[in-house]
Each structure stands twice: as structure tokens, then as C-alpha cells.
Amino acid sequence: MHGTSIFGWRRVVDQGSTLRLPQNGAGGVREVWHDQFCESPGVLKSARHEQTIVPVLDIEIGGDEFVTMAGPCSVETEFQLMATAHHVRRCGARILRGGAFKPRSSPYSFQGHGLDGLKMLARAREESGLAIVTEVMSECDVPMVAEFADILQIGTRNMENYALLEAAARSGRPILLKRGMMATIADLLRSAQFILDNGNPHVILCERGIRTFETATRNTFDVGAIALLKQVSHLPVIADPSHAAGHRELVPALARIAVAACADGLLVEVHPHPEKAWSDGEQTLTFSEFDEMMSSMEPYLALRPSRVALRDARVVAMEAVG
Ligand code: PEP
Ligand code: MN
Q1: Tens digits of per-residue pLDDT, 288-299?
Q2: By Cβ atoms counted within 10 A, which residue in 60, 157, 245, 247 is the most buried?
Q3: Which residues form ligand 1's pocket by a CB distance below 6 Å?
Q4: How remote is the CA of residue 282 from the centroid of ligand 2, in Å?
Q5: Which residues contact 177 (CB under 8 A, 6 or more apart)?
């Protein structure tokens, strides 16, 4: 009975007695999922293609490092952006987020600074060394946004805007593809396939919550989607706990859950004064809340197996099968 509790579950202890996060399921992809995702064969794992690593400056998304992308919802002022960039970098973030083009539910809300916002992001990259992820909303804007951004974000409202997906793909920049708030996992993978088919293999999937009957949270964080995507797809998966939760006090818990579900990184909203933010203040972390969240994730991050360990484990499993 060694290692088995009376409740029937086991603590997984490897030979070095180090606790590790269990990997999702057994090796391989279920047949039913092959059928379900048959229209996006290029994004599915295969023996030859286990994991895509997206290079961004000196960062590898989908590799060993858990990559945190943090920053304000919208680029507002030079001070707001620079202060946030320096702060999140000190806490371990590698990528600065911030919208210069904002898709807002109300036509009367702040729509973003456009080109001026992009220039502020470029200055923040120069000062902080962080890479930049920012949203592009229209295919006409792709060349301009691609000139300033290291990663193009496709927002939830545009996941099925195929003219935009094509233009973004052809820019050659890595693409952070957010799941549509009403999209199934198969829909998300079809959009990813569309980007691949337009010549761009550098796609990063992003789970940001979907619409359900629940109204206490802004969206419903579909952690099952993260686990499933990591099981079936070789593309990196990023979790956005901010837009999923809608309330800042829930964000750290969702971030930790994302690590346990084997996400490759986070996209999280941070602002020096969230109560004064021009957009999404309710779900945005203060600097000290961000610090606390990052520290609270450390024990979970320490459990992530390295890719080398994963590869070795798979070799052992394959040898055992014969
Ligand atoms: C954002 O990242 O600020 C944003 C608008 O995200 P989404 O498209 O997921 O709503
Ligand atoms: Mn936002």
C-alpha cells in the first residue's frame, strides 16, 4: 500500500523523491479527438511534432520557461506604461502587454491611442528589455502594428476574422490567438490551422474564458480546455486569468490553476492604479498584488517537469511498451 492513501489516490513520488506535477493523461491523442479536430491536422501533436517553441527576442514560448506577459489593459500614459514595465520585469515577467487598439463593448469607451500607443510600447521595450505583445484589430493596421510589436494579439472578438488572421499570419510575427468567447476548442484550433496554412507556424493559443450562464465571474475560465489543448496540440498555450475572472481577487488562484494544467505561460493585467485604469480596472492587479501572485506561483512552477525530463519519461514509457 506504500504511497496509496485510503481515499484511493496516490502521491506521485519519483526516484529522487521529488514531487512533480503529473502530466496530462497518458501519451498519445485519443481517437475521438483526432475525429473532432480532423479539420486542423497541422496543429495536432504527432510523433514528429511534439511541441512548437515560438522564439520571441531571447525568449522561448512553449519551452522550459514559464513565460509571464504582464501589463495594463490599455496603453494610457508614458508614466503608467514605463512604471508597469519596470515593475513587472523586476518580478519576473518577460513580455509587456498593453493595448494601443482597444476592442470595447461600448462605442463610447476609450478606443486606444493607436500609433502613439505603439510608439510608447516601443520605448518601453527599449527601456525595459521586455518584448511587446499588443492587439491588432484590423487587417489594414497589421503592417503598422507588426512594425512595433514582437507578438500580434488577435482578440477574442476577432478569432474568426479570417481577413485579419491572414494578414497577421503573413506579417511573419508570432501570433497570440485568443479563444473566441463563444468558440469551441475545435473552432480555436481551426483558426490556428488557418494561420499555419497562411505560412506562419508561430501560433500561441490563449484561453481567456468563455461565456456561460454564470454571471458572478466575467467569463468562465475553461481550465479543461488548457489541459486538453496541452494533450492534443503541439502549440504553446497561454492562460489569461484576468479576462476570465473579471475580478482581481480571483486572478492569482486562476493563475496557479493554469500552471497545474500545464499552461506554458500567463497573460495578466497589471496597473499602478487599477482603480483609475481607463479599461478593465476591476480585473487588474496592483503592483503588490502582482508581486504576491508571482511569489505564490513559485512552488507550483517548481513542480513543472523540464522538457528534457518529459522526453526521457516518454522514451522510458515507449521502451516499456516494447
Ligand atoms: C485584452 O487582452 O485586453 C482583451 C481585450 O482581451 P480579449 O480579446 O480576450 O477580451
Ligand atoms: Mn483588458
Answers
A1: 999 999 999 999
A2: 245
A3: 73, 99, 103, 155-156, 178, 208, 243
A4: 10
A5: 154, 159, 188, 191, 192, 195, 203, 204, 205, 206
